[in-house]
Design brief:
Layout (H helix, E strand, L loop, with lengths): L2 H4 L13 H11 L5 E7 L2 E11 L13 H10 L15 H17 L2 H6 L9 E3 L5 E3 L1 H13 L9 E6 L5 H20 L2 H15 L3 H7 L4 H20 L13 H11 L5 H16 L8 H10 L1 H12 L8 H6 L14 H8 L5 H25 L1 H20 L9 H21 L4
Parallel strand pairs: 3-5
Antiparallel strand pairs: 1-2, 2-5, 3-4
Helix pairs in contact: 4-6, 7-8, 8-10, 9-10, 10-11, 11-13, 12-13, 12-16, 14-16, 14-17
Length: 440
């Protein structure tokens, strides 16, 4: 069977969009007869967009879809044979549409859209929103799901051969960005967007459409500081992936939002770039294998910061880190040999470089976890060390109260002597213990 026979409603026999001239011609034919409209705030005013019924094969997916920002980067990283401008080049090309279709199906699966629409009772309710050229502005995941259902079982899902679409008036990309934010991001970004997809989407909008951090913040109803923090987190996550030979494999950091947020938030608390670098590399080592840190990065990352000095001391010993040799020119400049009394932070950068080496990461992680656990136990022991004194203080306070308020003629005397004997017995044991643990 030919492709055209499989998709008889498409002029090209493809289910991934008609050619642009055919799409525009179809709109010119259908829009004048439209009787229904979809009302939406757009271009700073409430507008009514004409709703028309078209073949499901007509629309093209929008490559600048925010939800797929991270997935697109990861797709290119995993498919070296794919052209580098697959998602940034010509939207009309079939290979770009096919790849985007696959990514949208991944997102649809995460949102259980297929399971929902597999039920024949759940049909289209809201129109898919297209721009004037037939590119999907809102509804990409639904469209991909319906196309896949129709492809898998044309008889059962024949009701998706035609779908309702609403057509936007002429607009530019920045206006579409604002509409996408209003329709998709502001109401459900935390539910539908992973943190890395959100950050990659924002960065893409800045590069493509020239949005500033302030404009991005206004667009998504966030504070500018929140946008800056998110983009900083993305930078660290990108650096982490590169260091692990996994550039743009964003799915590997999606679950570690807290870890990268803590790295960003902790940097300003650490004095010196060398020490900051050690902290970052130590955090990266734990992200590699959270289970070794107890599986709780939300506790382990702050614990590195809290015990950073102790962690660095132990790492220096275990890795035998040496300071870099002074350049001859510097020795001449300052008169011969370099000062043997190195500054305290001279080993920080060499240490950071040492623990990030692939062959050293596992050992470094073990050292870091060991120090964190030992420091935790020391603090616990320190608290427990005051237990005896606390008990004695409470007993003494109780006896003071007894003397001041209980030595009255009417007070009951029976049993008091026995209690005093017991108290004196315990006091004797404590004094004996103290005598055997005399400090030097």
């Amino acid at each position: 069977m030919t492709t055209a026979a499989l998709f008889p409603y498409s002029p090209t026999g493809s289910r991934f969009g008609w050619p642009k001239p055919a799409r525009v011609e179809e709109f010119l034919k259908l829009i004048p007869g439209a009787t229904e409209t979809h009302r939406q705030v757009f271009q700073d005013k409430l507008q009514a967009f004409p709703i028309v019924r078209v073949s499901i094969d007509l629309p093209k997916y929008r490559m600048a879809n925010g939800r797929t920002a991270s997935l697109q980067s990861e797709y290119l990283a995993k498919n070296a044979q794919a052209r580098r401008d697959l998602f940034s080049g010509d939207t009309e090309l079939w290979d770009a549409q096919e790849a985007q279709h696959g990514l949208l199906l991944q997102l649809a699966k995460q949102a259980d859209l297929r399971k929902y629409f597999e039920d024949p009772a759940n049909k289209q309710v809201e129109p898919i929103l297209l721009d004037e050229n037939g590119i999907v502005v809102n509804g990409n995941r639904r469209l991909a799901t319906w196309r896949e259902l129709l492809h898998d079982d044309p008889a059962k899902y024949g009701h998706y051969r035609h779908i309702d679409v609403a057509i936007l008036p002429h607009c530019d990309e920045r206006e579409i960005d604002r509409l996408e934010a209003a329709l998709q991001i502001a109401k459900d970004i935390k539910a539908d967007y992973s943190w890395d997809a959100e950050a990659n989407m924002m960065l893409a909008k800045q590069k493509r459409d020239g949005f500033s951090n302030k404009e991005i913040a206004d667009l998504y109803k966030m504070k500018e500081g929140e946008v800056e923090e998110l983009l900083d987190m993305r930078d660290y996550a990108g650096e982490y992936l590169v260091s692990r030979g996994k550039k743009n494999h964003w799915s590997q950091v999606s679950e570690h939002e807290f870890a990268f947020r803590k790295i960003v938030q902790s940097r300003h608390k650490i004095a010196g770039p060398g020490k900051q670098e050690v902290f970052k590399q130590a955090a990266f080592a734990l992200i590699d294998n959270p289970e070794e840190a107890g599986g709780r990065l939300y506790e382990a990352i702050p614990a590195i910061l809290e015990n950073l000095d102790e962690v660095m001391v132990k790492l220096r010993v275990d890795f035998d880190v040496k300071a870099p040799e002074a350049a001859p020119a510097l020795e001449d400049m300052f008169g011969g040999c370099a000062d043997p009394a190195l500054p305290a932070n001279a080993l920080d950068i060499p240490l950071a470089k040492e623990i990030q080496k692939p062959e050293n990461v596992e050992k470094a992680r073990q050292v870091i976890v060991e120090v964190i656990e030992s420091q935790k136990q020391l603090k616990k022991d320190s608290k427990d060390a005051g237990y005896l004194l606390n008990c004695c203080s409470k007993a003494q306070a109780a006896l003071v109260a007894g003397v001041s308020k209980g030595l009255r003629p009417e007070s009951k005397r029976q049993g008091v002597a026995k209690q005093l004997d017991l108290i004196e017995s315990q006091v004797a044991r404590i004094r004996q213990w103290l005598a055997s643990h005399v400090e030097d």
